[in-house]
Structures are given as structure tokens and as C-alpha cells.
């Protein structure tokens, strides 16, 4: 029989800031076992919800300098008295170019910093599952006293959308590319960004980075709705030398202060919670649907009919709902 999970002991350990207990609690929220899921929810209900933390999403293509940036930023922040958590959302099973997010070896100084806690992405799974575990881990980290939570993603699939929905400020890392810095920025991602940092603004690339920052400032003006309370900021920096890093963090702080002053921060977090509930409903409905033997048996023929034009998508959907008894 499975060992009983001592939720009160986990609550006490997490609130007391025990790294070992925190790691165990995270493993619990990452688990898919029904008894673990239940204990995890109990644990989360027992923990206080804190609002003083900073939740920052960081995205960028492999090689742009995410880990160098997080290492540099994280050590600056712990040096200034913050406690920093680094989490990752990486649902891809084939991790490209050796870019394992949240890999401790990529952040050597932060990995041994006692005021930092690095947690790699839960092992590959559906984006919904990975995002759920990460959201719940944020709550654990904050309860354990981490006041800055950095959530890293490479933006595979829709992962940057999922991360943007769990943070206060979304930071896009990019770099100057020969000629056109807008090339290579995934469509739609600029709309999510509150702050853009053009990294590798050092040595021979410094001028290019400044030009790219100007170009991006113009592009962002076009995608920012009129009357928005925040105009996204674009800054050039070098994660390697540290130049411009203070300014990037100041922009993150400024964005957060703007949200806080207008009351938008509390609203945003509350909206995120509600959105999250509906995301979970959708995910669970889809899981049930795919687990239903009748639906599974009917899907190939239904898809075939829709593909061939013999059935409208709406009627096909209706048949699936009927099979589920909905
Ligand atoms: P990630 O895949 O986005 O995490 O990128 P990494 O942090 O691993 O960086 C990829 C490469 O770019 C490494 O060789 C870094 O040393 C280099 N790099 C990162 N930041 C900078 C920077 O500010 N300037 C320069 N010149 N190189 C950088």
C-alpha cells in the first residue's frame, strides 16, 4: 500500500523554508497519481497566498542567452537580498540543442546559492500537465519565502502563452540578427511581451543590438493597443558582461509597479486563477474524452467523414458529445 502523505508536515516544512521538504512538495504537485493529486490540493489549500512576490516569465530561442541571463540576474537579486526561484516550462520531449531548461549546470553560481532554488521542468508531458505543475510549484515557492520567481521557457508550441498566463511580467529575450531582428521572433510573441531585452549587446554586436532595440520599439508601438497603461520597453543588454542588466530589471519592476498602482496586478492574478480553472476543465474534459472507449472507437470514422466532406465539423463534434452523454 502507498505510504500515507503527511500533509501537515509538508505545510510546516515548506513554510519553514526547508529545501528538502520543498523539493518533496514539488515532486508531489508534479505527480499524476490520484492520491498524490488529492494530497497536493490539500497542501495548496493550506498554504497562504502571497501577493508580494514578483513572477516573471522569460522566453527566447535556444542560444539567445536565457541561462546566462538568469544566472546573472539571479545572482544580482540574491546579492540584493532577494530569494530567487527558477522554474521551467518545457513540454517538448526532444530537447533541442542541449537546451535543457532549468538545468543546474547551465546556472552554476545560482545552483549553489543558498538563496536560490532551481527546479527543472517536470519531465516531458502535455503542455497542460507541465503548466499545471509549474503553477502549483509557484505557490509552493512563494510560501517558502522566494519573492522572485523566474519562469523560463523556450516557447515550443504554446508554452510561452501558458507562461504568460501565470506571471505578472513577461520578458522576451532576443538578439540582433544580421539585417532583420524581427526575423526569428515567433508571430504573436511580441503581443505577450511587457519587456524585451536584446541580449549580446557587447563587442562587435553592440551597435547592431542598439539598432535592433530601436526597430523593436517601433514594432511594439504597432502591436500595443491605443490607451494601454503600459507601453512595452525594449532595452539592450549583455548577460555576459552584465551591461544593461540593471536597466532590464528596473523595467520589470516599473511594469509591476504600474500594475500594482492601478489595481491591475490583483485583477490580473485573480483573472489568471479563473482562467486556469477553465483551462483545467478543458484539459480534463479532453482527457475523459480520449479515455472513453466508445469515443475512441468512433473517432477514426468520424475524422474520415469530416475529412472527406461527408460530415460537417459541427455535426461531427455533436456526435462526439452525444457519445459522451453531453
Ligand atoms: P540559452 O540556450 O538561451 O539558455 O542560451 P545560453 O545562456 O546557453 O547562451 C548561449 C551562448 O550564448 C553561450 O555560448 C553564451 O556564453 C552566449 N551568451 C549568452 N549571453 C551572452 C552575451 O550577453 N553576450 C555574448 N557575446 N554571448 C552571450
What does this structure look like?
InterPro entries: GTPase_ArgK (IPR005129), P-loop_NTPase (IPR027417). Keywords: Hydrolase. One of its GO terms (molecular function) is hydrolase activity. This is Methylmalonyl Co-A mutase-associated GTPase MeaB. It is an enzyme of class 3 (hydrolase). The chain is an alpha/beta fold and 326 residues long. It has three domains: 47 residues, Single alpha-helices involved in coiled-coils or other helix-helix interfaces, CATH 1.20.5; 214 residues, P-loop containing nucleotide triphosphate hydrolases (Rossmann fold, 3-Layer(aba) Sandwich); 49 residues, Helix Hairpins (Orthogonal Bundle), CATH 1.10.287.130. It is 52% helix and 11% strand. The protein has 13 helices and seven strands. A seven-stranded parallel β-sheet has the order 3-2-4-1-5-6-7, sandwiched between helices. Helix 9 links the parallel strand 6 and strand 7. Helix 2 crosses helix 3. The longest helix is centred in the C-terminal third of the chain and has 28 residues. The radius of gyration is 22 Å and the shape is globular. It starts with 6 loop residues before the first helix and ends with a helix. About 2% of the residues have low confidence. Bound molecules: guanosine-5'-diphosphate. Guanosine-5'-diphosphate (GDP) binds next to helix 4.
Amino acid at each position: 500500500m502507498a505510504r500515507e502523505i503527511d500533509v501537515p508536515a509538508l505545510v510546516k516544512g515548506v513554510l519553514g523554508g526547508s529545501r528538502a521538504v520543498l523539493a518533496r512538495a514539488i515532486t508531489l504537485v508534479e505527480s499524476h497519481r490520484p492520491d498524490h493529486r488529492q494530497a497536493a490540493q490539500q497542501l495548496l489549500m493550506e498554504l497562504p497566498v502571497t501577493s508580494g512576490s514578483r513572477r516573471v516569465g522569460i522566453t527566447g530561442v535556444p542560444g539567445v542567452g536565457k541561462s546566462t541571463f538568469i544566472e546573472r540576474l539571479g545572482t544580482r537579486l540574491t546579492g540584493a537580498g532577494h530569494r530567487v526561484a527558477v522554474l521551467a516550462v518545457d513540454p517538448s520531449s526532444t530537447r533541442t540543442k542541449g537546451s535543457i531548461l532549468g538545468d543546474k549546470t547551465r546556472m552554476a553560481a545560482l545552483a549553489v546559492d543558498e538563496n536560490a532554488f532551481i527546479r527543472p521542468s517536470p519531465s516531458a508531458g502535455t503542455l497542460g500537465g507541465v503548466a499545471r505543475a509549474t503553477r502549483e510549484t509557484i505557490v509552493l515557492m512563494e510560501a517558502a519565502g522566494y519573492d522572485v520567481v523566474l519562469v523560463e521557457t523556450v516557447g515550443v508550441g504554446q508554452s510561452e502563452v501558458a507562461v504568460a498566463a501565470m506571471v505578472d511580467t513577461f520578458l522576451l529575450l532576443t538578439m540582433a540578427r544580421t539585417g532583420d531582428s524581427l526575423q526569428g521572433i515567433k508571430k504573436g510573441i511580441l503581443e505577450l511581451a511587457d519587456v524585451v531585452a536584446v541580449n549580446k549587446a557587447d563587442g562587435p554586436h553592440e551597435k547592431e543590438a542598439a539598432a535592433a532595440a530601436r526597430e523593436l520599439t517601433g514594432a511594439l508601438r504597432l502591436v500595443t493597443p491605443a490607451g494601454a497603461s503600459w507601453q512595452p520597453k525594449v532595452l539592450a543588454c549583455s548577460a555576459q558582461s552584465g551591461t544593461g542588466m540593471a536597466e532590464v530589471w528596473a523595467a520589470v519592476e516599473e511594469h509591476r509597479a504600474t500594475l500594482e498602482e492601478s489595481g491591475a496586478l490583483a485583477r490580473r492574478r485573480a483573472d489568471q486563477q479563473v482562467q486556469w480553472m477553465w483551462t483545467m476543465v478543458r484539459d480534463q474534459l479532453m482527457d475523459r474524452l480520449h479515455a472513453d472507449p466508445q469515443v475512441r472507437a468512433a473517432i477514426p470514422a468520424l475524422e474520415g467523414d469530416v475529412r472527406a466532406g461527408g460530415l460537417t465539423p459541427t455535426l461531427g463534434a455533436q456526435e462526439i458529445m452525444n457519445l459522451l452523454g453531453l
